[in-house]
Design goal:
The complex is a heterodimer of chains A (about 675) and B (about 525). By secondary structure, chain A is mainly alpha-helical. Chain A contains 26 helices and four strands. Chain A is elongated, with a radius of gyration of 39 Å. Chain B is globular. Classes of the chains: A mainly alpha (about 675), B mainly alpha (about 525).
């Protein structure tokens, strides 16, 4: 165990998952919750232990598990490694994961398929850990797809409803589109390194060392750096829900709420950012790709925020908010501020998990009602949930001194130094974020309670198994950002220093005064948006409808999510289905038709041959037989025994020959 | 005694079983089944022995047997195995054994069924073990006849049509194959020989003469390839497959998809490539394009199928495309991926057909749209089915992923050495483009398999299926070993990859240098 410290971090949840799936029904719910939570808890402890060991000497820990694939050139190990980047990730994953597991024991209490849920959730943990601990691309891809599988299984957890099953399928297929690009990127990287540097390897360290050798390679008309990084980025847009592949994430809310918190907010969806940070040396060499990433990220952040403005389902608001925040992270990566992107991954994991779990607590209390229009005034009946939701909202809006403030501010400052357009995009989005989150808060907890009588009677604060994780996350959402203070107030810059050894870290050169001014401005924007939300949803509640009536067209576009689903349906899904249909018709009618046609032709040939055989070949035989027979009959007539007849023939014959003789000699 | 004749024992033990079955009166059905079980279990244990004792560091043939058979024509009885065939022998032994268990509930003419089935196994084993073209051809045809009757008598509603179509289609291929063999025998190097080892180690035969305006090696290559392509099956010669699969009884479908299809690829590996490396290089770009058509066309056709069995059949067309692509690449990784894909597809598609059989036995329908919500009624069945579907999808962590990735990796860098139609394709990035399209297959595969999962297993359970019984122990016994292989080889594929290693590294060098 000493030598395989990293492996055991993965093995605990993995073995627990297998055990629960196979024997969960037999051992009872208490044991299942205990096993599931403790396995993740142990893996959290091991992770912290490993990270502390790493912190003491900053030596990358490597865990050679076994030789996975071996060919002539390629030696790929099943190997795990812990550097500063994966250290951050495993702490977040196992830490938030443990809290969400504990929360789930309360939230899923009445569920019939309790065991199935925990088996898959544990499996997810194992896969996510493989993703971040893998030291080579191929193994990372195992985790990459593994988390996708678990996401699919958990989105479709309530599979009896057709819609949920559909959402799972959509998530998987959309992700596969991204994976396709990812695989192409992987193949090109492997090929380029192999042919240029003679290095056939998937190991990150080896790729990093030899990456400069492929600088002159062209792939399909693009430089290798650009092509490979673009393909990888498209892969990331699938997993991390960016334009154009974000469409699956809102639908993924069909899964249980803790799943949304863990998979679709805190961990899995950030793996795209993780991948880009892991490959920061590659992306940094591809300025075109970075430009694309920053604009895609910025536009995603903006569009998703506008869509979140008009959602009434509390989980959908959070889902679009997640897409938007992920856009923020890509925006950061796009301007080369990988560490800032990573920082936002961490703080976002805290406050978004908090918000989702808080929403789950609300939903749990309101007899599984998710429509905010039917809630309202819940702050008295759900005091703990209310306060943690307030903290979450403050954190995501970027209010000082909550976690979101630090990461968002850092990103904005980096953007300002890179491009003012992107900065404007980001600060505008920040305003929208603050607005829709406070809207969500006010609609849920202020005003009058609009629940029906029976739900109202059943209103209850959640059990401790749910509130304790919530409180822990709330604390983290407060203090989680205190590891990277802005330049004008440098209490500590621990986070970027920590990451420096594995990720490219840049510090903008702008003056502290400018940074301070911008920070003040962004705080003002957030506060302004929040107070606007107060006006709209607390003090003057008829206002939203009036506004909605005024800009009907815009509202309609927002509410219909820019018709993207419909456009994709028309552009991709339907053509694919009709292509498949026409191909199978083609297959049956023409390809197989040709075969059957051949058999018809063959039968015709056989028929003709048969006829020839019967009428000509055999006919000739019959003809001769007939001839012989007829002649026989004819000849036998002569031999009839009449002496007069013989005499007549004799005389005729003699006469004939005499005539011939005379004629011959011309007499 | 045993170890020196192990391949003959593996091949002929089922034949012995078939003879014993013939002698048992047909009323003793149980005895017939037990004899079949034992005589398929023996080759399986021998396959395990083979796996353990196969020398992974040896390049050439192992477990060789060589006897004179018809000396006047220099026809010999040669059996042997190397990295190319050893996994196929193992797969054949395993699937045959599992299929006997899967056939336990056959009710009609039990004696005839098992007699033919055992005869079929002899034919299959022989094809993979024979190293003399004449012997190979005999086993090839021996296998054909039982297959025809198994489909034609124990099949579904359109069994006669399917059986005849299968038989004639394959026979057309065999004719070309036989002509090719005769050309090799008479025009090949003297002394005239059918010995595959001798012929395959010449670095290309028939390179001198001209036939129909083409070098003779290319003509003979194409004739043989045509015979094998039908078996693969390669577009556009694939349409016998959906019919045969749909009509065949479960176990026979398993054998068809699990073993018979591989013979096509195996034939190219064993005969076309080593005999005619230059023709192989010349044909490679076309083969790559055909492979991609197989992958995408098969996948898209599968998406539209209403019958689960037909859907799985078309998915086989798609998956065998990867084998062809790996072959076309001729790189080490491509060839290794192709061979491994043969094995992994053998396990995953066998699972799928067994699973379809399970549900058909209960519901008497295979319509994709007739079901829904089966996960509620048959949780264990659904769990196993999920493993099978995801294995077929090539999900990382399962064996199909490794083989597909190897094929893609291998073909992506194949442009460097492939000449292709006498330089016409040089510098065209043909393999890069083909590989990218082949990778698109992962999206299509996911789409049709997930759509199938959704329509069959998810959603609400219709009233009429609420009484369906979950999978029973016998059925589980047939599925669990395959599921285990799919998972275990996904996590740790080295035991199988090691078997290929030496043979293939020699083979790929031979191919790229010989052309």
């Amino acid at each position: 165990m000493e030598n395989n410290a990293l492996l055991w971090i993965i093995l605990f949840p993995l073995l627990s998952s297998i055990f629960i799936r196979l024997y969960g029904k037999g051992v009872g719910r208490k044991a299942v919750s205990l096993i599931a939570c403790s396995s993740v808890g142990v893996s959290f402890v091991l992770a912290v232990y490993a990270v502390l060991a790493f912190a003491s000497d900053h030596q990358v820990q490597v865990d050679h598990v076994f030789l996975w694939l071996r060919t002539d050139q390629l030696h790929t190990w099943f190997r795990l490694s812990l550097d500063s980047l994966s250290a951050v990730m495993i702490c977040v994953i196992t830490g938030v994961g443990t809290l969400i597991h504990v929360y789930s024991t309360g939230y899923m209490h009445h569920e019939k398929a309790f065991e199935r849920y925990f088996a898959y959730l544990n499996l997810f943990m194992a896969m996510m850990l493989i993703l971040v601990l893998a030291d080579n691309f191929l193994l990372m891809f195992v985790g990459w797809e593994g988390v996708g599988l678990c996401s699919y299984l958990l989105i479709g957890f309530y599979y009896q409803d057709h819609k949920n099953a559909d959402a799972g399928k959509k998530a998987f297929v959309v992700n596969r589109v991204g994976d396709f690009a990812f695989i192409v990127g992987l193949l090109s990287l492997f090929w380029a390194l192999g042919t240029q540097a003679g290095v056939w390897s998937f190991d990150f360290a080896v790729i990093r060392d030899h990456i400069s050798s492929i600088s002159s390679v062209q792939i399909l008309g693009l430089s290798a750096f650009t092509f490979i990084s673009l393909m990888m980025f498209i892969g990331a847009t699938g997993k991390s829900a960016q334009i154009p592949l974000y469409v699956w994430l809102p639908d993924a809310m069909a899964g249980p709420t803790p799943v949304s918190a863990l998979i679709h907010a805190a961990t899995m969806v950030t793996s795209g950012i993780y991948m880009i940070c892991r490959l920061s040396f590659l992306f940094d060499a591809a300025p075109v790709t970075l430009e694309v990433i920053s604009w895609i990220g910025g536009l995603t952040a903006l569009f998703a925020a506008t869509m979140a403005l008009v959602q009434n389902d509390i989980k959908k608001v959070l889902a679009y908010s997640t897409v938007s925040q992920l856009g923020y992270m890509f925006l950061a990566c796009g301007v080369g501020a990988y560490a800032s992107g990573m920082f936002h991954v961490v703080t976002h994991a805290f406050f978004k998990a908090l918000l989702f779990l808080g929403a789950g607590s609300v939903i749990h209390a309101c007899s599984h009602e998710q429509d905010m229009r039917k809630m309202g005034g819940l702050r008295k009946s759900l005091p703990i949930t209310f306060w943690i939701f307030v903290i979450g909202t403050l954190a995501i809006s970027g209010m000082f001194p909550f976690a979101g403030f630090f990461s968002k501010d850092e990103i904005l400052w980096q953007l300002w130094n890179h491009s003012k357009y992107l900065w404007f995009l980001a600060i505008f989005t920040a305003g929208l974020t603050s607005f829709y989150m406070f809207r969500c808060l006010f609609m849920t907890f202020w005003g009058e309670c609009k629940l029906d009588a029976s739900s109202k009677a059943a209103l209850h604060e959640s059990p401790p198994s749910m509130t304790i994780p919530l409180i822990t996350l709330a604390v983290l959402s407060c203090v989680g950002g205190w590891v990277w203070w802005p330049g004008f107030m440098p209490l500590t810059q621990f986070f970027p220093h920590w990451l420096e050894s594995s990720v490219i870290v840049r510090h903008p050169h702008g003056s502290h005064f400018a940074e301070l001014l911008l920070t003040a401005l962004s705080l003002l924007v957030a506060l302004g948006s929040a107070s606007m939300a107060y006006v709209f949803y607390v003090s003057n509640i008829s206002l939203p409808q009036k506004c909605g009536a005024k800009c009907k067209a815009l509202y309609k576009v927002f509410a219909n999510l820019y018709y993207v689903d419909e456009i994709y349906e028309a552009l991709f899904v339907r053509p694919c289905k009709s292509l498949s249909k026409s191909l199978s018709v083609f297959d049956q009618k023409y390809v197989d038709g040709f075969v059957n046609g051949m058999s018809k032709v063959l039968r015709l040939v056989v028929f003709i041959m048969g006829s020839i055989d019967r009428f000509i070949v055999d006919g000739l035989v019959h003809f001769f037989a007939y001839l012989t027979k007829t002649m026989g009959i004819w000849v036998q007539r002569i031999q009839n025994g009449h002496i007069q007849m013989y005499l007549a023939v004799l005389v005729t014959g003699v006469g004939f020959f005499i005539a011939l003789y005379l004629g011959y000699f011309g007499l | 005694m045993l170890s020196s004749h192990i391949l003959s024992w593996m091949t002929f033990t089922p034949l012995l079983g078939a003879v014993i079955v013939l002698m048992i009166p047909k009323c003793f059905e149980k005895a017939i089944k037990i004899v079949s079980l034992i005589t398929t279990a023996i080759p399986l244990t021998m396959a395990v022995y083979l796996f353990q004792h196969f020398d992974r560091d040896q390049v050439g043939m192992q477990f060789m047997e060589r006897h004179q058979w018809i000396p006047s024509f220099n026809i010999q009885y040669i059996m042997g195995t190397d990295g190319i065939s050893v996994t196929m022998l193992m797969l054949t032994a395993l699937l045959s054994f599992l299929c006997v268990i899967a056939s336990w509930n056959i009710g009609k003419k039990v004696k005839g069924y098992f007699f033919l089935f055992l005869l079929l196994e002899t034919g299959m084993m022989g094809v993979f073990a024979a190293l003399d073209l004449f012997l190979f051809y005999i086993f090839w045809e021996v296998m054909l006849l039982p297959m025809y009757f198994l489909i034609g008598i124990w099949g579904g509603a359109r069994r006669e049509y399917a059986a005849i179509k299968f038989f004639i289609y394959t026979l057309v291929g065999s004719v070309f194959m036989l002509l090719g063999f005769l050309a090799i025998y008479f025009w090949g190097p003297s002394p005239h020989s059918f010995d595959m080892i001798v012929l395959g180690s010449q670095g290309g035969i028939l390179s001198q003469g001209i036939l129909f305006g083409l070098p003779m090696s290319k003509v003979v290559f194409l004739a043989l390839f045509f015979g094998f392509a039908i078996k693969v099956p390669m577009f556009p010669f694939h349409t016998w497959l959906p019919d045969a699969h749909v009509e065949a009884p479960t176990a026979v479908s398993v054998i068809l998809a699990g073993v018979l299809l591989k013979m096509g690829v195996y034939g190219v590996f064993r005969i076309c490539y080593p005999f005619f490396p230059d023709a192989a290089q010349w044909f490679a770009p076309i083969l790559a394009i055909l492979a991609v058509i197989n992958i995408l066309y098969g996948g898209l056709c599968a998406m539209n199928q209403k019958d689960i069995k037909k859907l799985v059949a078309y998915s086989s067309v798609s998956h065998m495309g990867y084998c062809l692509l790996g072959l076309a690449a001729m790189t080490f990784m491509g060839l290794e991926g192709s061979l491994f894909q043969m094995f992994t597809h053998g396990t995953s598609t066998a699972m799928l057909f067994l699973l379809v059989g399970v549900i058909y036995d209960r519901a008497h329908t295979r319509g994709v749209n007739d079901f829904g919500g089966l996960a509620s009624a048959m949780p264990k069945y659904t769990f196993v089915a999920m493993i099978a579907f995801f294995a077929s999808m090539g999900l990382p962590g399962l064996s199909g992923f490794i083989s597909e990735v190897f094929v893609l990796l291998g073909s992506f860098h194949a442009d460097a050495h492939v000449i292709g139609f006498d330089q016409a394709f040089r510098g065209q990035n043909i393999f890069i483009i083909c590989t990218i399209f082949a990778a698109l297959g992962v999206v299509i595969t996911a789409a049709y398999l997930l759509w199938t999962i959704q329509r069959v297993f998810l959603g609400s359970l219709p009233e009429k299926w609420s009484t369906l019984k979950d999978i029973n122990t016998r059925e589980l016994i047939t599925l669990v070993p395959l599921a285990f292989l799919a998972i275990a080889l996904g996590i740790y594929p080295m035991p199988i990859l090691d078997l290929f290693h030496k043979t293939l590294s020699h083979f790929s060098q031979f191919l790229t240098a010989g052309g």
